[in-house]
Each structure stands twice: as structure tokens, then as C-alpha cells.
Amino acid sequence: MGHGHDHGAGHAGGRHAWRLAVSFGLIGAFFVIELVFGLVSGSLALLSDAGHMAADVITLGTALLATRLATRPDSTGRRTYGSYRAEVFASGFAVLVMLGVAVYIVVEAIGRAGDGGEVSTGPMLIVGALGLIVNIIAMFLLRAGAGESLNVKGAYLEVVADTVGSVGVIAAGVLVGLTGQTIWDTVVALAIGVFVVIRAIPLGRQVLAVLAQHAPPGIEPGVVGSSLADIDGVADVHDVHLWTLTSGMHVATAHLVTCEDADSHAVLDQARDLLRKDYQIAHATLQVEPGTHRGCDEPGW
Asked: For the chain, which residues make up each domain, given as ranges?
């Protein structure tokens, strides 16, 4: 009878779920404050940052939900890889939200160009400073998990962009206060929008690479195939496939053609150890074939 594989205990996103939860609470509470003061002050920089903060709330909530789904046991028997890809979809959603916020900021800034409306700098400085404190706390909370989980990384980049947004709000408040020119509010809002796009694009590329089942970053399929071919008793290697299921979970499949009189059990053990130790691939499906085997044709795709 078959059995599944439970990776949940070592799941990177699951280990950092509490960081997402605390950050979600902090930023959610601050979003309400910033939105109210943005409307009162009439500051586009403050409203654009509030819009980005709203994106943070959505992104963190989605990331937290995805983490719960990823660590949930499969009761259907049909999700043979579990629900780990939920985190990747959540990261993709974070990219779309970031780009949407950036477009909104740019459109609003262009619409206000030359408007010369009145901007109250007091609320901008107070809320900007408070937002900076909140974002720094959330940023340090998420930083520890950003290197391990693509899902946490998406949330972390959102908060980093918001931290820069808070600095921008403070800068806009100071410049408007010193010069009396409200154009600085629009300039800073545009700069925030550009920064958000710059942060979103690399994350989007990572998400697409995982969904397209590219080889994990830093691991070359040709090099892996050569390493497997160097194992004692292996005559040839073919059908090497490498991909990432979700952050920290790399998967491999390969066919190993053995020499005559080779110990297939020893070959299999060495191949699995090599993939685990040298390439951090803990889950590998390896087919060992004797050299006389002729039934394994190359697929047409």
C-alpha cells in the first residue's frame, strides 16, 4: 500500500507563521490611522502610502492564509504534493497588488500635477514617523523568514517598500513645510510608486520560475547529471528533472543506468545522499535501470 510524504514539520513558511500574524496585526491597525489622517491632511504621499499599507494588509493576510493551507494535511488523497504551492500563488498575488498600488499612485500623481492644492504637513510628519516605527518592527520580524520562504519574502518586500514610503511621507512633509511648494508631495508619491515596481519585478520573476518548474536557482541540471554519472556503478544518466515545489523544497527525478554486476541498492543510496548533501534536494525519485534494459524510451516532450 502506498504512502505519502509529510514535509510539514520542516516547512519554512510554517515556522514563521507567527511573524506574519504579528505583522498583520500591527500594520492592519496602523492602516486605519494613516487612511484617516491622509484624508484629513489632503496629502497624496500620505494617501498613497495608506494605499500601499492596505496592500500590505491584504498581502500579509493572504500570506498567512497560504501558510495555514500549506501546512494543512491532505484529506482527499489527491493532492500528492500537498498544498505547498498555495504559498507561491500568495507571493504572485503580492506582486500583482504591489504593481496595482504603484499604478494607482502614478495615476493620482499625474492627475494632481499642477493642482497646487493645500497640504497639511503636521499630520504627514506625525503619521509618517509612527508608520516608520510600525514598519521597522514588522520588517525585522519578517526578515528572519524572508531568506527561507518565498511567501514570507513577498510579505517582507511589501513591508520594506512601505518603510521607504513612510520615509518618503516624512521627507515630503519637511520639503512642503520648508518650501511651501506642494509639488514635493507629488514628487515623493511618484518616487514611492517607482520603488514599489522595482521591488515587485524580481519577486515576480521568482514566482514565475517556480510555477514554470525551472531548475532551482544555483543548481544546474547538467552538473547534477554529471555528478550522478560519476557514482560507482553508474554507466549513464538521463531524464534528469529538477524543480521547486515551494521555498526550501526542491524536487528531482532521474533515471540511472547501471553497469553490469553493479549493486543497484548501493547506487540508489549513493545517489540520494549526493542529492541531499550536495544540492539540498531531500525529495528525489530515482529509477535504476540495468544496462540491458531497453524499454525506457525518451519522451516526445
From this structure: 8-211, 221-290
What CATH fold (topology level) applies to the domain 8-211? Alpha-lytic protease prodomain-like (1.20.1510)
pLDDT band at 174 (very low <50, low <70, confident <90, very high): confident
Q: Rounded mean pLDDT of 165-193?
A: 80
Which CATH architecture is the domain 221-290 placed in?
2-Layer Sandwich (3.30)
- Using 50, 70 and 90 to split pLDDT, how confident is the model at 6? very low
pLDDT for position 3? 46
Provide the pLDDT for residue 11.
53
Q: Using CA atoms, how far apart are residues 161 and 231, in angstroms rounded to an integer?
A: 47
Q: Distance between CA 150 and CA 210 in Å, rounded?
A: 10
Q: In whole angstroms, what is the distance from residue 286 CA to residue 249 CA?
A: 17
Q: In whole angstroms, what is the distance from residue 145 CA to residue 262 CA?
A: 44
The SS3 assignment for 149 reads coil
Which three-class secondary structure state does DSSP give residue 237?
Answer: strand
- The rounded distance, in Å, linking the Cα atoms of 142 and 65 is 16
